[in-house]
């Protein structure tokens, strides 16, 4: 499942109130993203999302957690983004 997510083009999430991706990490290799995804423990109403994108340096892959209900999750401005 993770490999198929990482093979699809999907822009990096942006930090705004309509975004339900609450945490994401960016990697320079698909294998690093896949390894990270294997360590995620999901709660109720959460799912792993991600994709492939690019910047001025080259390709990148990202893995994140999307929630069904942002209000139930907590503070919408407390979005957590990490670049590896």
Explain the overall architecture.
- The chain is of the alpha+beta class.
- It is built from three helices and four strands, in the order αβαββαβ.
- It has a four-stranded mixed β-sheet.
Oligomer kind: single chain
**Widest sheet: strand order?**
2-3-1-4
Number of helices: 3
Order of helices and strands: HEHEEHE
The count of DSSP E runs of length 2 or more, i.e. the number of strands, is: 4
**Proportion of helical residues:** 10-25%
Outline, from the CA principal axes?
Answer: globular
Low-pLDDT segments, ≥5 res: none
Category from helices, strands and their pairing: alpha+beta
Q: Roughly how many Å is the radius of gyration?
A: 12 Å
Largest sheet: 4 strands, mixed
What is the mean pLDDT? 86
The domain count comes to: 1
- Proportion of beta-strand residues: 25-35%
Structure characteristics:
84 residues, alpha+beta, four-stranded mixed sheet, 4 strands, 35% strand
Quick recap of the structure?
By secondary structure, this protein is an alpha+beta fold. The chain has three helices and four strands.
Summarize the helices and strands and which ones pair or pack.
Layout: H1 2-6, E1 21-27, H2 30-37, E2 46-54, E3 59-67, H3 70-73, E4 80-83
Parallel strand pairs: 1-4
Antiparallel strand pairs: 1-3, 2-3
């Amino acid at each position: 499942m993770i490999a198929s997510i990482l093979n699809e083009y999907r822009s990096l999430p942006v930090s705004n109130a309509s975004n339900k991706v609450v945490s994401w990490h960016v990697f320079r290799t698909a294998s690093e993203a896949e390894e990270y995804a294997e360590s995620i423990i999901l709660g109720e109403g959460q799912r792993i999302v991600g994709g492939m994108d690019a910047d001025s340096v080259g390709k990148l892959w990202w893995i994140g957690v999307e929630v069904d209900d942002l209000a139930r999750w907590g503070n919408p401005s407390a979005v957590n983004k990490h670049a590896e």
